[in-house]
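ARCHIVE CARD
CATEGORY: sequence design from structure
SOURCE FIELD: tokenized fold
FIELD CONTENT:
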């Protein structure tokens, strides 16, 4: 009598493990804390499914006819082809969202189940995906692998670097349909659009001033409380806004990320650069409401206004 099959893995678990192998094959690296989670399962999978894997293996590699990408396993090519065909055969029974891979559906299901299987060994915080754990671990290790070749600033995520690069390229891909004003971030566009709707639902209980966003209200309230939670690590000077701290720290670092497109002069603040560029463009946005004379800078207009105040005092 032969022994019963020593280990039976469900079809969906097998799919998940194939995905893990294929994803690792593409990335060439499994992070240490992820490997610890998955290695026993991968070893089991290797032991009992090695023959199936060998039957799927292409002698000369499996090549995608659409983009030329090469895969070792035919199953990996089959899943890759769904990127081109748009096929999404795995559907969430909770919300109806569809996915190209079973492993992606399983990851999505954690949103509904609340499962967080990836835990940080440093602080105990848990995550739904190993990718989020990898990002979180950089907080502890201090790793910032994405480097700006313009100013040397480093970031944890590639998406953060891409957003930062817009400071140098002046790219503003998000435009307001009402007034045409453009923004580097979609979140800033959403905040701006509330100006047009006139919706100011956040009120200060101290002075009854209203604000478009909760963040604006929180910043404003520090005027009343005197709170300055942001401290400079160089000179211990404190600020009530993180943006003010970042601008101040450029005094110590010498960083000047804003470059004039006309003469290449650099500035630490975006506002300073814009004011400087008016020298080249001839723009004079500040107008005296008494005599309609225009000025390049606000301080020039304010200084001019004193002339009219003096005239009124002598009449």
């Amino acid at each position: 009598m032969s022994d019963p099959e020593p280990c039976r893995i469900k079809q969906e678990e097998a799919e998940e493990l194939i995905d893990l192998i294929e994803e690792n094959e593409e990335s060439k690296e499994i992070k240490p804390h992820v490997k610890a989670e998955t290695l026993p399962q991968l070893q089991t999978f290797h032991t009992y499914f090695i023959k199936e894997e060998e039957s799927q293996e292409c002698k000369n590699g499996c090549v995608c006819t659409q983009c030329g990408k090469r895969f070792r396993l035919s199953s990996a090519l089959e899943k890759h082809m769904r990127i081109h065909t748009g096929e999404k055969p795995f559907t969430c029974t909770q919300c109806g969202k569809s996915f190209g891979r079973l492993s992606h559906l399983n990851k999505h299901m954690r949103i509904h189940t609340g499962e967080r299987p990836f835990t940080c060994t440093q602080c105990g915080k848990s995550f739904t995906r190993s990718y989020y754990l990898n990002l979180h671990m950089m907080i502890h290790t201090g790793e910032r692998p994405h480097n700006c070749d313009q100013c040397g600033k480093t970031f944890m995520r590639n998406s953060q670097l891409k957003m930062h690069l817009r400071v140098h390229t002046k790219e503003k891909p998000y435009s307001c349909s009402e007034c045409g004003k453009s923004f580097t971030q979609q979140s800033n566009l959403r905040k701006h659009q509330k100006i047009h709707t006139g919706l100011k639902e956040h009120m200060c209980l101290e002075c009854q001033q209203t604000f478009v966003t909760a963040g604006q209200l929180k910043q404003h309230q520090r005027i009343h409380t005197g709170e300055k939670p942001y401290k400079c690590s160089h000179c211990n000077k404190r600020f009530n806004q993180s943006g003010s701290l970042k601008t101040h720290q450029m005094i110590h670092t010498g960083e000047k990320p804003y470059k004039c497109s006309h003469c290449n002069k650099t500035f630490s603040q975006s506002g300073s650069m814009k004011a400087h560029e008016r020298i080249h463009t001839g723009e004079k946005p500040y107008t005296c409401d008494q005599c309609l004379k225009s000025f390049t800078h606000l301080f020039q207009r304010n200084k001019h206004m004193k002339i009219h105040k003096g005239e009124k005092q002598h009449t």
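CARD ANNOTATION: The longest strand covers residues 57-63. The CA atoms of residues 263 and 280 lie 9 Å apart.
SHELF: design records, drawer C
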